[in-house]
Amino acid sequence: MSLFLEFHLIQNFAPSNLNRDDTGAPKDALFGGQRRARISSQCLKRAVRLTAQAHELVAPEHRAVRTKKLLALLQERLAGRDPEEARHKIELVLAGVGLKLKDDGKTEYLLFLGHREVAGLAQLIDQHWDELTAVGGEKKSKKEAKTALPAELTKQATALLDGGKAVDVALFGRMLADLPAVNQDAACQVAHAISTHRVEREFDYFTAVDDEGDADETGAGMIGQVEFNSATLYRYAVLDLHKLLSNLQGDRELTLSAVAAFTQALVRAIPSGKQNSFAAHNPPEFVGVCLRHAAPLSLANAFEQPVTPRGDAALTAQSVQRLADYEAKLAAVYGQPEDRWLLLDLTGRWPAGHGQLQANLAALAASAQTLAADALEG
């Protein structure tokens, strides 16, 4: 049976510019014929990864790194060896699996590798140091370099690139263009966050004063403007529990700890864009976690008709009410009797009895872990 753990969040941000487009303006989108504030899924996923790291929600050996600087990471682990020799051997091994380094020592594109994978490659090079010394010669083309490494070492190096039980790789997947065999489909899907209401961009015209200006120097030392908005956002993400278990190589304990870590990190995650200027550290007013047994159900269409600001009710409260009403309508048609809800609700607008209310985020994460454990057991 399919098992999907959904996350529905209503989060109001004070004036901010958390996720910018190429002009520096806050990202937005048309939805339901109206302009909405938007935070991209890529931005949110990075915020989740950084939050999990900052709060140490995942053990270091089960984390990953996204970088072009694999050479430097491997050289660091081979610090006891001659740097030039180490670089030569690293290039040989990476070329053997199809990852060629550019002249500046960086890979041709960003790699997403578990720390265990990086450690494994370094250990392989260290163990086969003398054997790699015998493999050398002048600089080769990418095709020639790939065949220079002995077949058995190529096989061992490729086998090491199995995701390394890295939780963030298992959650968000990866694509290595030159090594499709080690690609990993994501167990988690994250939607672009959109405002539940219509938004307009605003502009902050600012000036900066020169502290060392002379008495006859009038005016500002610098002027400029920054665009921003303020919005109540609907955020949605869904975990495929069976896929997560598979990506983590059947490690049930790690899978369940990943569910708890993801729950905490997703709720705490706030993008860092322009925070020094706006300090929009506003946690969600509502978090709903739902276990679905048939198919995932985004509730974004609850806001196809935008919520209208009212003097007697906050946008967050209205948004939670709208979300609850739409969920009831959708679940009656597409839901399953065994679907279950866990809730954090600071608005008091979610219907009483429709889910288990949790006291705090830690309790929500623990209950989500238990819900996932019981579902996978069944």
Index terms:
378 residues, alpha+beta, 2 domains, ten-stranded mixed sheet, 21% strand
Domains (count): 2
Instruction: Please tally the helical runs, counting DSSP H or I stretches of 4 or more residues.
Output: 13
How many whole angstroms does the radius of gyration measure?
A: 25 Å
Mean pLDDT: 93
Major sheet characteristics: 10 strands, mixed
Report the count of strand segments: 12
First-residue to last-residue Cα separation: 9 Å
Walk me through the structure.
Helix content is 38%, strand content 21%. A hairpin with a 2-residue loop joins β2 (28-31) and β3. The N and C termini lie close together (9 Å). α3 crosses α6 (142-148), α4 packs antiparallel against α7 and α10 (252-268) packs antiparallel against α13 (361-377). The mean pLDDT is 93. It folds into 2 domains: 4-59 and 186-203 and 230-377, no CATH class; 65-165, no CATH class. The protein is built from 13 helices and 12 strands. With 378 residues, it is α+β, with helices and mostly antiparallel strands.
